[in-house]
Amino acid sequence: MSQGDGQGRTALVTGASAGIGAELARVFAAKGFDLVLTARRAERLAALGDELHRLHGIRVRVMPADLALPETPAALVAALSRDGVAVDALVNNAGFAVPGRYRDTSWEAQRDFLQVLVTAPCELIQRLLPGMTERGYGRILNVASVAGLMPGSASYTLYGGAKAMLIKLSQSLHSEQKGTGVHVTALCPGFTYSEFHDVTGTREEMRRLPKLMWLSAERVAREGYGAVMKNRAVCIPGAQYKTIVALARLLPLGTGHHVAVLRSRILAKRK
Fold first, then answer.
1. Alpha carbon distances (Å) from 265 to 47, 97, 125, 245, 261
2. What are the angstrom distances between the C-alpha of 70 and each of 41, 74, 101, 118, 126?
3. Max Cα-Cα span within the chain
4. Around 31, how many Cα atoms within 13 Å sit in the side-chain half-sphere?
5. Residue 255 falls within a domain, yes or no?
6. Torsion of Cα atoms, 53 then 55 then 58 then 62, to 10°
7. What domain range includes position 39?
8. Annotated catalytic residue within 102, 137, 156, 159
9. pLDDT at residue 35 in the model
10. With a cut of 50, which residues of the chain have pLDDT below it?
11. What pTM value is reported for the model?
C-alpha cells in the first residue's frame, strides 16, 4: 500500500495512549491519516501526538476522555462535528479487564467494563457510520481478541463474551456495508506485549507462557491495518493463533468447554 492511503482523511483511535492503540495510531499516521487520539492519560496522548506530527507532518487532535462515562462517546462526536472534523476511520481499541471470579468482583467494575468494551464502541459506530456511508468511505477496526473465538473459562468472566460480541458485530456490519465503501474488521490478537497484564496484575502469571505465544503490538497493528484496508471481516494475527482457533472450532461444544475448565485449573495451581 502507498504512504498516501489516508491523505486528507481522519482516523479516531480510542485507547491510544499505549500498547496496540498507540501502535495503530502510528500505522495510520504513517499512511497519511490525520489523527484524533483519545484515552484517559492526557500526558501520554500529548507525547504521542507530538511524535506523530513531527514524524509524518499530520494533524493530531488530542482529546483526553474516559469512555467508562456514558456521556463520553456522544460528547466526543459532538465536539468533532462542531469543529467540522469528519471521521473517516474509527479504531475501537480502548479496553481493560476485570480479573477474578465474577462473584468476587464489584458490579461497578463490571459495569464500567461493559461500558468501555461494548457500549462505547457500539455508540461510536452508530454515531459515525451514517456519515461514512454517505461519503462512500469508511474504515472501522474493532480490536477484539482470540478470547472471543474460544470457549469461556474461569476469571475475566465477561471478557470473552464482550470480545465475541465485537466480533459478531463486526461480521454483521461487514455484511451490511458491502458496496458502500465502508470496511469493517474485527482484529483478534492473542497474547500481546503491552501494559495490559501489568494493569490487571497478572504479569508474573503471563511470564510462564512460552515465547511462541506472544505477539508484538507493532505486528498486531500492522496486520489489523492491512485487514481493514482489504475489507476482511476477521483478522487473527499469527499462525499459532490461527491454528488454535481452527482446532477449537473442530471440538464439540462440550469438549471445548471442558478443555477451558482444565486450563483454568492448571493456571490456578501454578499461582
1. 42, 20, 38, 21, 6
2. 18, 8, 25, 11, 14
3. 55
4. 21
5. yes
6. -30
7. 10-270
8. 159
9. 98
10. 1-2, 197-198, 200-203, 205-206, 256, 258-259, 261-271
11. 0.87
Locate cell 499469527: which residue?
A: 238
pLDDT at residue 73, rounded to an integer: 98
> What does the block give as the cell for 76?
466526543
Helical packing angle, 19-30 and 42-56, nearest 10°? 20
204: its cell numbers: 508474573
- Write the CATH number for 259: 3.40.50.720
Q: What is the pLDDT of residues 87-131, one digit of tens each?
A: 999 999 999 999 999 999 999 999 999 999 999 999 999 999 999
The grid coordinates listed for 264 are 483454568
Alpha helices in the chain, H assignment, sequence order: 19-30, 42-56, 72-82, 107-114, 120-135, 159-176, 196-199, 203-206, 217-229, 239-250, 253-270
Residue 73 lies inside a defined structural domain of this protein: yes
225 is catalytic: no
Q: What is the pLDDT of residue 2?
A: 38
**Cα distances (Å, whole numbers) of residue 106 to 114, 193, 216:** 13, 28, 32
- Residue 3 included in any domain: no
Q: What's the total number of domains in the chain?
A: 1
Q: Is residue 4 part of a domain?
A: no
The torsion defined by the Cα of 205, 45, 21 and 179, in degrees rounded to 10, comes to 160
